[in-house]
From TrEMBL:
Residues 69-132 form the Cupin type-2 domain. Pfam families: Cupin_2. It comes from the Bacteria. It comes from Litoreibacter arenae DSM 19593. InterPro entries: Cupin_2 (IPR013096), RmlC-like_jellyroll (IPR014710), RmlC_Cupin_sf (IPR011051). This is Cupin type-2 domain-containing protein.
Length: 322
């Protein structure tokens, strides 16, 4: 692996290319300032304007959402896993068809493995531009997004219509549904009744982990298994997530039989690999090729942590409740 080849597998935070028309709520007041990013994989965007940084299949997708204060992402559902960790800012996550079944406030480094089959949304409640990083199960990210009925109605009132082909049409640009394409149907009452309605205790206790708690565990000298069959969050969403800290990092090279991803949270990290070396900063995303010997260690003093993601053979939508 040459340094040039490896650079093509690194997406720097400052080079991220946003899409402001990715989803149906792009014109809806309160959600119209969102920026969506597809870093690895095809993502779930409904817009052809979405830029894909790395299209190599990994068994999962990596994306991000950037939002100014008080901007929110509308209530939606996924058929596969959706995991977020907070890179910058302070965020409120809420769930239920109307967002009134529960909520949790999350700080930088916190991680949320959102269960499948629930409506969820999120809002930047900080005082500055915030960024959350996302891991989506499967190479096709589950075939798209399922919107709460009121989101589709609100979007239509502001000029955006979602076709049953999963594509957006903007009447403000003179677009209309093509022949043979119908509006995306609203979920029926029977379909809505089948959507899960977990309590705050179920969600927060089972699917949220705090960064400070995980960082403390990492001082033991071993990487923290955050999501996995034997993780702090005992789930099998089609990938595993570890938190590696300064104390648990090792300069001993290792490899995986499938691509893996390194996503620094704090500090600068030196990644040595067969063919060269590179330094990553918070917000950067690095795709490590399968079977490439590599190691990652902090390159400067101070707090250092990164999230490590690798696919498993589990179904991308499986939720295992132990």
């Amino acid at each position: 692996m040459t340094p040039q080849d490896m650079e093509a597998r690194i997406v720097r935070y400052g080079d991220l290319q946003p899409c402001k028309t990715a989803f149906i709520d792009a014109h809806t007041p309160g959600s119209d300032q969102k920026e969506n990013f597809t870093i690895i994989g095809g993502g779930v965007s409904e817009s052809p304007d979405q830029h894909v940084h790395i299209s190599i299949p990994h068994g999962f997708n990596i994306g991000a959402a950037g939002q100014p204060p008080h901007c929110r992402n509308s209530l939606h559902n996924h058929r596969t896993a959706e995991v977020f960790f907070i890179l910058k800012g302070r965020w409120r996550f809420f769930w239920g068809e109307h967002g009134d079944l529960g909520e949790v406030v999350m700080e930088e480094g916190d991680i949320f493995n959102i269960p499948t089959n629930i409506f969820r949304g999120f809002e930047n409640i900080g005082t500055d531009y915030g960024m959350i990083m996302a891991i989506l199960g499967g190479d096709d990210a589950g075939g798209g997004v399922i919107w709460a009925p009121h989101v589709i109605k609100d979007a239509k009132a502001h000029g955006l219509v979602l076709g049953d082909n999963g594509k957006l049409y903007d009447s403000k640009k003179g677009q209309s549904l093509p022949d043979g394409v119908k509006p995306m149907p609203l979920l029926t009452k029977d379909e809505l009744d089948k959507v899960d309605k977990p309590t705050p205790m179920d969600v927060i206790g089972g699917y949220v982990r705090r960064y400070l708690d995980m960082e403390a565990l990492g001082r033991s000298g071993k990487p923290v298994k955050v999501i996995g069959e034997n993780g702090l969050i005992r789930d099998k969403p089609g990938f595993e997530v570890d938190l590696i800290t300064r104390e648990s990092a090792s300069d001993k090279k290792h490899k995986h039989d499938r691509p893996s991803v390194l996503m620094p949270m704090h500090g600068h990290w030196r990644v040595d690999y067969e063919g060269g070396s590179v330094t990553l900063a918070p917000g950067d995303t690095m795709s490590v090729p399968e079977n490439l010997m590599h190691s990652a260690v902090p390159s400067m003093t101070g707090e250092a942590s990164l999230y490590h993601v690798v696919a498993t053979d589990d179904a991308a939508g499986a939720t295992w409740k132990g």
